[in-house]
Sequence to fold (329 residues):
Amino acid sequence: MAFDQIAVIGAGAWGIALANVIARGGRTVTLGTRDPLSAAAIMQRRESPRLPGVKLDDRVRVVAVNVDTARNDAILLAVPSQHLRAAAVMIAPALKAGTPVIACAKGIERGTHKFMTEVIAECARSALPAILSGPSFATDVARGLPTAVTLAIADDAIGAALCEALGSPTFRPYRSTDVRGVEIGGAAKNVLAIGAGIVSGRGLGASAAAALTTRGFAELFRFGRAFGARPETLTGLSGLGDLILTCSTTQSRNFALGVAIGQGQAPREAQSTRKLAEGAFTAPVLVEMANEKGIEMPVAAAVAAILDGTLEVDAATEGLMTRPFKAEG
Fold:
């Protein structure tokens, strides 16, 4: 379980950042992109337009994804959540039995309501599904700024070995066997970050921002517990830690989307003119899954309704503030 040969599928900002940090840790890294022209351009410039100003480490090899890409000791899927199924299908035929395949997306698949490791298990049956999540911006990781995340996989011994392989002096993965808890934290916080951005963009003040983040976390916690997550996971890096990060700065695509909506931009226009915000896809799925289990999530429901244009921001604010008084919990 040395995991010396590692592939990162996806040459976006997060894929570039992960490839860089893993290479700095001394591993041989292959960065795979689904577009041959993109692979050639990145190899030539040693830079991706998705992460301008950040040079790709010289030890990273860039290729168009092929059969050989799957023949690595571990594979990271650094693609958006709604594209993860296609990436898993692509590598499945040549995957060695027992190869860890690590989802690096924070979301839930629309239509199926499947978490990322469930998608991997369904599409690549010989894989050992895992999830990497936590408070991390691609630019910080790529620049070598100190970052701590959580890596969750069912087998604790393999998790320990993977943390050794992926870790470096600037990138510290903590291991967990609570796969579902890590997935839920990463997916739900994106939805709440949009809500926090709306509060900021609308100029509702720091008190309102703190209230939304705190009550939003209560929703995340209720949802997580209903789906079997451990409390310590939800209050850890991949839950509360990631929520704090993404609810506080426009470096977060989800927060930035919320700010634009709060400032008056139509939700559809805001989504079409900005970089991909995973929370916009996750919001309706999260609410659907909560409703199926009878989980009360008024903040997430308000965000989903604003995004689909059925609720105005001011009406959502009034609705949340005039809910019946209750005990905190």
Q: What stands out?
A: The longest strand covers residues 127-133. The chain has a mean pLDDT of 94.
